[in-house]
Fold these 2 entries.
Entry 1:
Amino acid sequence: MKQTIKLHDKFFNYYLGKEKIDLAIQSLVQQVHDDLGDEIPVFIGILNGSFMFVADFIREYPSDCEVTFVKLASYEGTKSTGVVNELVGLSEDLTDRTVVILEDIIDTGNTLVKIYEIFDKLPIKQLRLATLFFKPEVFKKALPIDYIGISIPDRFIVGYGLDYDGLGRNLKDIYELKTNRMKNIVLFGPPGAGKGTQANILKDTYKLIHISTGDIFRDNIKNNTELGIIAKRFMDKGDLVPDSITIEMLKDVVNKHRTAKGFIFDGFPRTTSQAEALDKFLAEKGEQINGMVALEVPQDLLVARILERGKTSGRPDDQKEKKIRNRFNEYHTKTEILKDYYQAQNKYFGINGVGTIEEITQRLKEVFDKF
Ligand code: IMP
Ligand code: MG
């Protein structure tokens, strides 16, 4: 089962599975059967959306029944009369029969109004209506719905017969339209520029998840994990941990936060290939990087800041000027290329990183607010 799918131009996230649908159908069948007893009902599915529901419903139905389908055709009328609905395909004689309409989904209830209008005119014995999905927040009609399978919030869903512009009906599970796009920001800047400090403030302001690859590696090193042991070999020398390791680790973290409003990537990506991998990974989720926000600080000021931090941070790579210089070299030779990468997509935002923490936060917020 896929977490995110794309239909036409839109992305949909997994919402609920076939098991839930099966349970709802079993319960619907039981309620209908309890009410109708020995009666032989005519089940009428409203096409197209209800075909799967009807198929599964009548397979569960424990006694004799008939089934047929109709289609509600909408005709664009003249400007004054608007939309007219009419039933297509009903050839059975329903005189004195118990009719149970099977609907896939009831949203505003406009379709339901038409259904009642049409069936109220027929000489049937009784009319019942069952719907698999129902949106109580949207439904505003004073009409009875006798049986409701699953109530859902006001979301647009696809799958199990339901479509988005023709697609998605064949999905076994239900997916919901993805609406709120994430704010995904790459916080960028040379070592000591204040990325961590600012990320900590901004993640609270914007309710984002802060992913510092450096912190994750350091945690792993501290806990002596397999990843930590590998990462330590590189980090102690002031080298970058290889892309493949970093990317896999980052994907794990992102995937753990399924409902996040977005991420602040701090210390990642550091190479063009990491940036490409990140773009690809986010695109599969229907997401993207909104921008790279870079703190620009002169190098001499940075060396002084890092040496100061090294007195308290306990980070071995903070304490020796030679190692610090090596990190700058890495930064300049490999990482700064990323500026070009994001600039080419019009996603580079340079921020003056000299000033008080508050001043710099303020400058960053001005950019974050635009995303
Ligand atoms: P109504 O608003 O209750 O009249 O629903 C009209 C029709 O819109 C339904 O029969 C469905 O065909 C379609 N519809 C409403 N909500 C959804 C949804 O979430 N996904 C797919 N189709 C929907
Ligand atoms: Mg329908």
Note: The chain has a mean pLDDT of 89.
Entry 2:
Amino acid sequence: MKPIIMDVDTGIDDALAIAYAAHSPELELIALTTCFGNISVEEATRNSLYVLEKLGKSVPVYEGAGAPLSGTLNKRYARHIHGEDGLGNALKGEPHGQKAKLAAPDYIIKQVKERPHEMTIIAVGPLTNLALAIEKAPEIVPLIGEVVVMGGAVTVPGNITPHGEANIVADPEAAAVVFASGVRLKLVGLDVTLQTLLSSVHLETWRNSGHELGRLFAEMTEFYIGAYETRYPGIGGCGLHDPLAVGVAIDPSLVSCEAMRVTVVTEGAAAGQTVGSTEGEPRIKVCTRVDADRFLQHFLSRVI
Ligand code: BDR
Ligand code: CA
């Protein structure tokens, strides 16, 4: 079992990714750490606790950054994509559990030091928590097993600016810190995640599953698919961005990667753009191809 921390900004695809990880015997989900992004960090914490309760999983949730390293939000929350509550307006009530005491970056530092070379961090929101951890304790960099990041658009257009992907645009400085740190990193960007689409035909099975999680996931994902249809008319489904990062952590053969140096534009209209080059160091594994059908079948067999 691979021990993982998931760093999330729990919107809809984050919730699907959490469930996929929690139901996968190859992974040991140790904790969630939360970040602002799709919604505020407090809402990300609430949604994470809520989803874990619906999953019947007792996993600690450590709250992290409420704003990017620069201190000011440079992109609005994504309520038009993820709903007012971040879960497609499917949230019914508040979770019973409470967040854990430590701040997310301190928890990451502590956990990595306790299990050197073992931890995989699956980061599917802005990279602020990881950047704060690396800035505070750079000695953790060689001790992290691997970071799998959902973020960036190296070979394809962006989804929030012409070249910028939402998680990187939300905190370009944080992404720049993490990418330049030399940490072992795999980048699961729009290059591959927009090839993994979930269509509404799959939601019937969830809706008729006879349990609450299935109904919740069908309701929230229906909202997400609707938002994708508005954003990309005729697309026929929603991008399984964050679940694909989990899929890659479970089975790296789902994707093929190219080793590149990736820099991040941190200023101006192109802030958040991820620029790949086959020259220079450090190298990051940029996922450029995905076996989308095999991933989708695997995801559907595990998620609820
Ligand atoms: C990423 O942005 C967020 O809206 C999603 O949860 C995903 O992590 C896709 O660009
Ligand atoms: Ca996310």
Note: The two ends are 20 Å apart (CA to CA).
